[in-house]
Design a protein that fits this description.
The complex is a heterodimer of chains A (334) and B (112). In chain A, 74% of the residues lie in helices and 1% in strands. With 334 residues, chain A is mostly helical. In chain A, helix 1 (2-12) packs across helix 4 and helix 7 (175-194) runs antiparallel to helix 8. The radius of gyration of chain A is 32 Å and the shape is elongated. The mean pLDDT of chain A is 86. Chain B is globular. The chains are: A mainly alpha (334), B alpha+beta (112).
Amino acid sequence: MNYIDRYIYAVAEQLPEKMRADVEKELRADIEDMLPENATEEDILNVLTSLGDPKELANRYQPKMRYLISPAVFDDYLATLKLVAVIFATVAAFIGFISNIVEYSAVTPVKDLTVTIISDMIAGVFSGLSAAFLWVTVIFAAIDYSRFKKGVKKETWSPKDLPKIPAAPAARIAKSDAVVEILFSIIFMVIFVFYPHLIGWFTEGDHLQDSIPLFSDSVLSRFIPVIILLTVLTVTIAIFKLVYNRWNYLMAGLNGADKLLKLIFIIVFLNYPGTFNTGFLSRMADKLALDYSAISSDWYRGIQLFIIIVVIASFAGILKGFLKAYKNQKILKQ
Amino acid sequence: MSSDLLQNLITELRRGTLTLAVLSQLKTPQYGYSLLQCLEEKNTNIEPGTLYPLLRRMESQNLLESKWDTSESRPRKYYVISDYGRTVFSALKEEWIRLSNEINTLLKEESL
């Protein structure tokens, strides 16, 4: 008799609480009906065998979602996973590299440093890849699960909903451009937020964190929230670019807004009183055997020149987006 | 390998007809095992592990109604076709006749 109880238990434990008791009762009656009077153990085993694997039986009572990532979204999942894996692995490898450089002191032999850098970068790649795999999978599985719970609504599909083919290759937003944008903005943020002393004046034998930084710590720390926000914005817009992958006025507008905000940030930051560390400038004057005031006025003139270049580059980037959107629109209308 | 494929195809082919078979036999109330025997007598073989859960699923689709009978020594759950089930049954039956005619025409043509 024991086998029947075990079988029913094995089925019931797979079922949701609310239907469990009723199924148990019904299944017991069904099994007992199938048994002859004074059933032997062999009879019982035969009946249970004919009912089959309890897991399969339970699944027929209550069909469950059998996919972590369902075939409907699997292609999107793979594409996202590839992109995120590349980004995470690169950033993690970069951090593995930079953290060693920063902690480097002249005492460590270069050979040892190389070994640690390489091993940290490999470890970074692995942890980046596993993090990418974990997050992309968790997020896709959660989206899939909620779709399953809600029941997929079948929207009536019409050929009119088909996306337009990008007019010309030039009208597409290159995937690599968007990925490079994401990578650079994250790496830039990591340096500014975590390793600001990397941008500084080094003397031989210095720990890198003992360098004389180019930017004053107090001013930089005031700008850190803005830097993080801008990075999030750039990454978000780059993701939009990856998803829509063609230039239209909306994409050009987003791209323009992103570049304009970054430009404003650069102008404000570089002109902010006290952004540049006076220690850095006087060290430079020392080294070049020049007068501090001469160096400093040249320096600020150089900065203005730099800003002009950045302004031109930014507007070129903004204009490029609108031009491509315009061309794309024109060809589509023909 | 090929016999696995054949088995899968046969299961798939039969799956849709099971609902029709069950609906046809439930004009009078039956419990799981009695329905199984009733179908077997009429040479329709269905695995018990397929039939029992199917009854329950059809009940949740409102095709069947159920009632526990506890008057006898062994409590049994009786299923019977619902009004909605009757409507669905007659529509399915028509569809089945049409479909089998279509397929038969194709198969006859092939055997010539």
